[in-house]
């Protein structure tokens, strides 16, 4: 596992911690059990317990992912230390299939409520990120780690924004002005034009780091934590995720009945931008 990227190792550590810190009925943690005492039945019961969130609801995908990592970790441990680790992997042959729930698209009205709540809480950067996701169909990772000020109104093309193609990582020019001279994305472009540039990225944390005295990029986990808090302040359903902003934008741009999967990474055309520019 040492060859895995840092984010993957972090995810593995979190998954193993979720399993090892699970408290059993007798007060012991699952991680305190000897490997010889872990049976397939015990793992099945663990799976059932992990699927339930402590505060209510389910986390089936998280539970299944954690046990898949345990299955791999057991195999690795057995290859390294066959004298102490049983060859029969109790995490093997489990039904860890999980059907993900469809992403609930965010409506334009919800977007406006979210941005208002973000601004009121002094987290304008997250409001800006939400607008970029909805209007320009950008993914979270591209917004908080790739989209820079050099992409917005570049010197060689001041009437475009160069958005990031998720799969190819190529830059695609998105017009900010329609063919007839009409300004597109007026609310978003006005917001960006008056924004204080606090770093190379368009979206950075709103307050400077107390120690470094600079505005740091958002970490994915902290960004999502703040998105959840703003979502609650805006009285938007807890099932709504940040990716729902992009899905909401897709529904806005493409008519009902369109196969959205065929457009999941397509650049917007000027006509599509113009058709919804009144929203911005």
Question: In words, what does this structure look like?
Answer:
This protein is mainly alpha-helical. Helices cover 42% and strands 4% of the residues. The protein is built from 10 helices and 2 strands, in the order H-H-H-H-H-H-E-E-H-H-H-H. It has helices spanning 6-20, 40-51, 60-80, 108-120, 124-136, 140-145, 186-193, 220-233, 243-253, 270-275, and strands spanning 160-164, 171-175. Strands 1-2 form a two-stranded antiparallel ribbon. The longest helix is centred in the first third of the chain and has 21 residues, at 60-80.
Provide the descriptors you would attach to this structure in a database record.
2 strands; 280 residues; disordered C terminus
Task: Give the topology.
Blueprint: H1 6-20, H2 40-51, H3 60-80, H4 108-120, H5 124-136, H6 140-145, E1 160-164, E2 171-175, H7 186-193, H8 220-233, H9 243-253, H10 270-275
Antiparallel strand pairs: 1-2
Helix pairs in contact: 1-3, 4-5, 5-9
In short:
The protein is mainly α.
The average pLDDT value, as a whole number, equals: 87
Helix amount, in percent?
Answer: 40-55%
Main sheet overview = 2 strands, antiparallel
- Note the total helix count: 10
Q: What is the number of beta strands? A: 2
Category by helix and strand content: mainly alpha
């Amino acid at each position: 596992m040492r060859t895995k990227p840092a984010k993957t190792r972090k995810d593995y550590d979190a998954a193993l911690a979720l399993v090892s810190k699970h408290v059993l009925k007798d007060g012991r943690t699952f991680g305190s059990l000897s490997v010889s005492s872990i049976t397939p039945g015990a793992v099945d019961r663990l799976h059932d317990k992990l699927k339930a969130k402590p505060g209510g609801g389910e986390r089936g995908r998280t539970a299944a992912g954690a046990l898949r990592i345990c299955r791999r970790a057991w195999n690795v441990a057995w290859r390294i230390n066959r004298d102490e680790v049983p060859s029969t992997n109790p995490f093997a042959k489990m039904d860890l299939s999980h059907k993900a729930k469809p992403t609930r698209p965010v409506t334009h009205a919800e977007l406006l409520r979210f941005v208002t709540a973000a601004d009121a809480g002094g987290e304008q950067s997250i409001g800006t990120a939400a607008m970029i996701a909805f209007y320009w169909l950008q993914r979270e990772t591209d917004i908080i780690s790739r989209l820079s000020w050099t992409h917005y109104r570049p010197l060689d093309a001041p009437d475009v924004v160069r958005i990031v193609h998720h799969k190819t990582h190529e830059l695609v020019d998105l017009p900010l002005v329609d063919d007839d001279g009409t300004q597109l994305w007026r609310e978003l472009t006005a917001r960006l034009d008056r924004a204080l540039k606090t770093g190379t990225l368009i979206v950075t944390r709103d307050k400077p780091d107390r120690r470094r005295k600079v505005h740091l990029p958002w970490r994915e986990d902290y960004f999502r934590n703040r998105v959840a808090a703003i979502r609650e302040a805006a009285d938007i359903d807890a099932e709504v995720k940040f990716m729902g902003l992009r899905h909401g934008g897709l529904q806005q741009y493409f008519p009902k009945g369109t196969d959205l999967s065929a457009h999941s990474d397509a650049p917007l055309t000027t006509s599509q931008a113009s058709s919804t520019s009144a929203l911005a």
